[in-house]
Design brief:
Shape: globular
Helix content: 40-55%
Largest sheet: 5 strands, mixed
Strand content: under 5%
Structural class: mainly alpha
Radius of gyration: 26 Å
Number of helices: 27
Number of strands: 7
Distance between the termini: 80 Å
Length: about 750
């Protein structure tokens, strides 16, 4: 801290031709948080891992990002990240860690990029602190340790930011084009989410460049046109290809990439209407929220100690869903209730908001005295860029109807940038006794410590009272001592400032380590003592949280074993031996939409079977294992059919694709609700000898009710003794009570 007020030019000169030794441990911390033990995740997000397995088999599957080797349906995202994952799997072999590796490296790369971006203007200490804050933001390593898209997306957007900053510094239009083209590439990673940074790019270029308005408009118009062209390039090729020559576009209702981009992966995220039926009718957000709430309760119960009574587990789960004062604050997938303080609610605040009060004080300090008409310094211009990134994204997450906790990684770069740049600025104001501005540093420390105490308080049963009390007490003491010692200039004051930063980063650092300590969930990544559940929020009284949540679900064909004592009852539904029933009036049969994965139309693990015997973590959020007896039966009786078997959705299909590399048909796409298959089309496929076995669990019909009814009416049921596992270690899973059918038509 004592070097923070050094001149930027002096810092550049002294560090220009040598490695920043302070950066080395920061990068090592990031590498540890992002890479350590990723080799224990055998399947990662099984939905995406199955796609990589399929993409390795042919260029056709590779180009379209086909979920299955048969090219029946694609995954629900564009292909760029999965192209990278497939290349990684081709180089290093097909493993869980090889598909995770690109995202882990992207997480480390984002730390380095933020250091470079902040250091040049705000100084080396600002760069170091920004990089450290990025590395320790809990949701960053939590997402980077999975094969989900978001860490690669953020890295790509930071590359675009570097290009934009270079465009302004060099006054070269080529860099502007490159920056916006890179956003187009990011669009082909996660569609409209990439455009969330556009306000920052437009505002910064307009404010920072010293050219005429005519040129600004012309340059930005051209760059935007290029961005749009790159964005829709893959979509145009796919949508222009005859439907019978490519896979169905998964999770769309019209077999269109553009509809997927602007509907399911676009506007519907804001409105919350992301679940659809085969008829094209959107499921009400309230129904999704009820489903998600049930899922959260089930997850909590699944990891509870088996010695607890059913009533105790229900009580614990019910309490978890309550906000202080009795209000339900978990929201859908524990994302809280929309409102201006949503990012401070449970489930979100511990993922991203640890330093938000300090960031707010930093913004005040960095913009203090700025006049609307300028002129603006370089620091003010770049501060405006980060603010224009932070505010629109924060507003979106404050009002959005549907998102997952790990999407919050989009807020990590501006928060980290302001944490680093703001720390240096506030320290300088404090040391210079700059009037009211000198109070911003102790004020920021005090309020940030208070928020961190609030964030940790629901987790007292997991982390104990000591760290909560320690952060609170040290935050108050250091803030007060700094306030009292404002007029003194000595080394002790410098140490106090450094100690304050250590205190504020201590618990985010611990939270960032929780996916390593407690285990992670590759389907719904989050950080915290309950990180393996993927649900966020305060933990239950789990004794083995590493295997809670969706880990270790029963493969299709396994006997259901002991059913959940809680019955898995959903709001408005009924219990059936632990099988979740849909709310009354729901057309989606209790589907629970998961990110990029499956509708989790499933039974949850019961408390007596939440521990896995495997040394490797199978946290795919789906059936993480196959039923070998079923696989043997299907393989033995395959007479040349293209598909090993067909099932309603990707939940049952993914593990068999990963295990065998053979085509398995997810008839209704990832959630079972895509209107892909008709009875006439299925008849034609059966007559051509493409498929004859069907595994139906009785759940997740969505828009396939006619097809499933026809299958049941025109097939013979295969006796369960021929294919169903009777292993005593079988766990409750998404398809445990299903039935295998055979159809042959002449």
């Amino acid at each position: 801290m004592k070097h923070m007020n050094s001149e930027v030019k002096e810092e550049r000169t002294s560090n220009k031709n040598r490695i920043d030794l302070f950066l080395v441990p920061i990068v090592l911390i990031a590498a540890f948080l992002n890479l350590f033990k990723i080799w224990t995740d055998e399947y990662a997000n099984a939905y995406y891992t199955a796609a990589v397995k399929s993409m390795l088999q042919s260029f056709h599957n590779f180009f379209y990002a086909s979920f299955d080797p048969g090219g029946y349906v694609t995954i629900d995202k564009p292909p760029v990240v999965f192209w990278i994952q497939t290349i990684s799997a081709e180089i290093f072999g097909f493993h869980g860690w090889s598909v995770i590796l690109p995202q882990a490296l992207a997480g480390i790369g984002s730390v380095l990029l933020l250091y470079v971006l902040v250091k040049r203007t705000f100084g080396v200490w600002a760069g170091r602190l920004a990089a450290l804050a990025m590395a320790l933001t809990p949701i960053v390593p939590a997402v980077s340790r999975t094969n989900n898209i978001d860490s690669m997306l953020v890295f790509t957007l930071l590359v675009a930011t570097w290009m934009l900053f270079r465009a302004v510094r060099t006054a070269k239009f080529g860099w502007v084009l490159a920056a916006f083209a890179m956003i187009g590439v990011a669009f082909n990673m996660k569609m409209l989410q990439a455009y969330m940074v556009l306000p920052a790019f437009y505002v910064f270029y307009v404010v920072a460049t010293k050219i005429t308005w005519k040129k600004k408009i012309a340059f930005l118009t051209t760059a935007t046109a290029l961005m749009l062209a790159v964005s829709v390039s893959w979509a145009v090729v796919v949508d222009s290809t005859s439907a019978d020559k490519r896979p169905y576009m998964g999770s769309s209702q019209t077999n269109s990439v553009l509809e997927l981009a602007f509907g399911y992966n676009g506007i519907n995220r804001l409105t919350g209407n992301t679940s659809v039926t085969g008829s094209g009718h959107k499921q009400p957000a309230q129904t999704e929220q009820q489903t998600a709430s049930s899922e959260t309760k089930q997850t909590s119960n699944s990891s509870a100690d088996s010695s607890q009574s059913s009533n105790q587990r229900k009580s614990s789960s019910s309490q978890k869903m309550q906000a202080p004062g009795g209000g339900n604050q978990n929201g859908m997938f524990n994302t809280g209730n929309p409102g201006p303080f949503r990012l401070f609610q449970k489930g979100l605040s511990d993922q991203i908001s640890w330093l938000l009060p300090f960031v707010i004080f930093s913004i005040v300090g960095l913009f203090a005295g700025v006049k609307f008409k300028g002129p603006y310094t370089t620091k003010q211009k770049e501060s405006l860029f980060w603010l224009a990134w932070l505010l629109p994204v924060a507003v979106f997450f404050s009002i959005a109807g549907f998102f997952h906790q790990y999407y919050l990684i989009m807020l990590a770069p501006p928060i980290a940038a302001f944490a680093g740049a703001g720390a240096v600025a506030l320290w300088s104001m404090y040391k210079q006794h700059n009037g009211w501005k000198s109070w911003l540093l102790p004020g920021g420390i005090l309020t940030t410590a208070a928020l961190q105490v609030y964030i940790m308080s629901p987790y007292v049963s997991s982390i104990g009272v000591a760290p909560i009390a320690g952060v609170g007490a040290l935050g108050v003491i250091l803030a007060l001592v700094l306030a009292v010692r404002k007029q003194r200039k000595n080394s002790l004051t410098n140490y106090l400032g450094a100690a304050a930063m250590v205190v504020l980063l201590a618990m985010p650092a611990y939270w960032a380590m929780t996916p390593i300590i407690y285990g992670g969930n590759s389907m719904l990544p989050s950080a915290g003592p309950d990180s393996s559940s993927g649900m966020g929020g305060p933990p239950s009284t789990a004794t083995n949280s590493k295997q809670s949540g969706f880990n270790g679900m029963q493969p299709p064909g396994s006997s259901s074993g002991n059913s959940s004592s809680n019955g898995g009852q959903m709001p408005g539904g009924s219990s059936n031996n632990g099988q979740m029933q849909p709310p009354s009036g729901s057309s989606n049969s209790g589907q629970m939409q998961m990110p990029g994965g499956s509708s989790n139309n499933s039974q949850m693990p019961n408390s007596s079977s939440s521990k896995s015997s495997s040394s490797k973590r199978k946290s795919g959020g789906m059936n993480a294992e196959v039923n070998q007896k079923l696989l043997n039966y299907l393989t033995k009786n395959n007479t040349g059919e293209k598909y090993l078997f067909a099932t309603t959705d990707s939940t049952s299909a993914a593990p068999y694709i990963i295990k065998t590399g053979k085509p398995v048909m997810a008839m209704g796409g990832f959630s079972g609700s895509d209107p892909i298959l008709t009875v006439s089309k299925l008849k034609a496929m059966i007559k051509k000898g493409e498929v004859k076995y069907f595994y139906l669990s009785g759940m997740g019909k969505g828009g396939q009710s006619d097809v499933i009814t026809w299958i049941k009416d025109n097939s013979k049921e295969i006796p369960s003794s021929k294919w169903q596992s009777t292993s005593s270690s079988a766990q409750q899973g998404p398809s445990g009570n299903g039935t295998l059918y055979e159809i042959t038509l002449k």
